[in-house]
Amino acid sequence: MSRIALVTCRPGPEVAVDRDLPGLVAALTGAGADARAVVWDDPEADWAGFDLAVIRSTWDYSWRAAEFLAWAEKTGALTRLANPAEVIRWNSDKRYLGALAAAGVATVPTRYLAPGEPVAGLPDDHEYVVKPTSGGGARFAARYTPDEHDTAVRHLARLHAEGFTAMVQPYVRGIDAAGERALQFFGGRLLHASRKGAVLAPGTPYDERKVAHPGLEAWQPTDAELAVAAQALAAVPEAPELLYARVDLVDGDDGRPQVMELELVEPNLFLSLHTGSVAPVAAAILAAARR
Question: How far apart are the first and last CA of the chain?
């Protein structure tokens, strides 16, 4: 019997509820596995006792990135970890977008400002977004107009004071028209796709909690979207084996899809929307546990 840990985090006021977790545990148990949800920082967890640990909803990790990465390294040495620790380390910092762009993948143009670097040259002719390179659910992210320059500078100062490198991106107007599309891959195959509306409303403070997936609906990806997603996945360093991946796409000014994020750490799978995907996800996890 395969012993499988579905890795999650402790509940809290700023942590979303993983609605997929109970159903996934049930599906794996029904298929004959000993499956359970395990909190990643549980000091009593016996990671060596599992055949596979699948990171599912460690949605507090970006607030404790160094601790989480150390956990991933340690756990990956004790059991099979999906995705692997080296993937988690690379993907936990959104400076990977620069690596994707350098590899020729269409990505949202991004500038990085590390702590100690001067805050200068913010856009003066278009809306833009400021957010940390380590984060999720639009935490500490906000949208600004050129007239809000001073507020954006205070936002950047706060990020730097907390040790975050900041990202500055143009606000992609295509989100307002076509939304953001999330293409989910599991076991090396397209699982399903979803579309959601814009997360960042004008005037919403960076430290206000956002609705991470507004207006979520099923989506049929286009050939162009599939092609960009395939390019992004092929550009992950050293071609690691990925159990899961989510490629978030938006339309650029030219109407073509570009990568907003490549989620290889703990992407929400939206199984409550795509209920038919529970069985193939469970099958892929079981296959990985038996390797």
Answer: 13
What's this model's pTM, rounded to 2 decimal places? Answer: 0.94
Residue by residue, DSSP assigns 45-105 as: --GGG-SEEEEEE-TTGGGGHHHHHHHHHHHHHHSEEES-HHHHHHHTSTTHHHHHHHTT-
Cα pseudo-dihedral 118, 120, 63, 65, rounded to 10: -60
By C-alpha distance, which of 144, 94, 87, 139 is closest to 114? 94
Residue with tokens 């084996």: 241
Average of pLDDT values for 150-179?
93
215: nearest Cα among 185, 193, 195: 195
